[in-house]
Structure formats: C-alpha cells, structure tokens
Amino acid sequence: MKPALIVALDVPTVEEMEAALTRLPDTIEWYKVGLELFCAEGPAILEPLKRRNKKIFLDLKLHDIPRTVANAVKTAASHGVNLLTVHAIGGRAMLEAAAEAARECKNPPKLVAVTTLTSLSQDDFTDFGIIRSVSDQALALGNLAISSGIDGLVTSAHEAGALRKAFPAALLITPGLRMPDGEVGDQKRVATPAFAVSQGASHLVVGRPILQAEDPSSATAMIFADMRSVL
Ligand code: C5P
Questions:
Q1: Strands (DSSP E) found in the chain
Q2: Which domain holds residue 133?
Q3: Ligand 1 centre and the CA of 205: distance in Å?
Q4: Which residue has a Cα nearest atom 19 of ligand 1?
Q5: Which CATH number covers residue 209?
Q6: Which residue's CA is minimally distant from atom 2 of ligand 1?
Q7: Segment 172-210, tens digit of pLDDT
Q8: Which of 2, 44, 86, 91 has CB 3.0 to 4.6 Å from 62, enough for a Cys bridge?
Q9: In ligand 1, which atom is closest to the CA atom of 176?
C-alpha cells in the first residue's frame, strides 16, 4: 500500500480550519481532527472536510467501558470518518467491542490503537506499577490491540520497524515527523518522512511543518518527494 500523508488540523476553531483548508493544496487527501477542534465544534466540524471529499482521521483516543466505546465507534462511523483512535490500555474486552462495533457499521472506519502516550516516561510507568520498559510495553499493547481485531497502531517512526516486523498487515500511523532542516518544536524524537516510510509506516501525520509553512504547497510537495524517495 502506498503510504498516505495526513495533515493534523491542530487549530481551535472552524474559522481557522476553513482558513487552513483554503491555504493547503488539493494534493492533501487526509486530515486529522483531534480533541481540541472536536470539543470546540462538535461533529459539524467534519462537514467542510466531507464537502471537499477528504478522508478523515478522527483522533479521539477512546478509552472507557466496552459498551460506551462501542457506541462511540458507531456514532463516529455515522459521521463518515475513515480512521479512529482508541487506547490499547482499555483492555481486550474494550478493544474487541470497538472492533465488533466497527465491523457492524455501514461504512466501517479503520480503528487504530495508541499503545503508550509519548508524553509518558519510565517514571510514570513506576507510578503505575508497570516494570517493563516503554518499548516492551508498546509491543505488548500492540499485540493486545492487533489480536483483539484492531486494524493498526499509532507509533513513533523509531518503533515502527519493530512493529512492522511483528504485525506485517497492520496500519502503522506515525506522527512526530520533520524534514531534516525543519523546526522540531515540542516534539522530542522526530524522524523524517522518508525514514517513517522506510520503517513500514502506512500513514504519516504532519502538522506544523505544513500548517505553519510560509508556502504550504511547496512544504507539502517536499514531504511527498521525501516519502517517494524510499519507495
Ligand atoms: O505539528 P506536529 O507535526 O508535531 O503534529 C503532530 C500531530 O500528531 C499532533 O496532532 C499531535 O497531537 C499528534 N501526535 C503526536 N505524537 C503522538 C501522538 C499524536 O505528535 N505520539
């Protein structure tokens, strides 16, 4: 499968989203809507994207009891989203209920699981009473999610190679990407789009390097060229 580029619409209002969509090139087929924008505007925020025939990655990181998550998956699917996130730490029953709910939908979204938030450190793990390493935990939770019927995982590009080896058919969504000369911002372990593709990523999430570029069209073209360079 040819890897896809997803642009993260990390803006606070529909007005700013519309302004961003006007500036961004048509070559972008996928957009990610996260909690900030979805909480501000509700499901209506997805309409401008659907009008433009864009694919939607709804990043709500669902984590609750199985029934609640299953119903949220069905509701999200009814809004026409293509990719939806859940937390692997919700456990097998929650993951299986989410996967089953998705399968029952008319237009089933693909579900991808967050294994470990990148903001968590080994100290947080100690607080939780978890003794294995962050990377072992990611692999174990990845296994739990995929064996529960979830379609893929959200991962740093640095762990994508190991996950691709372990889960050959999974979707692998990699954020935290920068061009070699790009500003890193608050991201800690960045990688280039080419590296993410070389490690087996299926979907690359990019926000600020495109949204805040002076010329978003040429920034996007450079990222696509970098992705293609290793195919
Ligand atoms: O602007 P930037 O390219 O850093 O944006 C990356 C996007 O991916 C943001 O929406 C961020 O919340 C998301 N993300 C991330 N790291 C994760 C999970 C999601 O950067 N581990």
A1: 4-8, 30-34, 55-62, 83-87, 110-114, 152-154, 171-174, 203-206
A2: 4-228
A3: 7
A4: 175
A5: 3.20.20.70
A6: 207
A7: 999 999 998 888 888 878 999 999 999 999 999 999 999
A8: 86
A9: 20
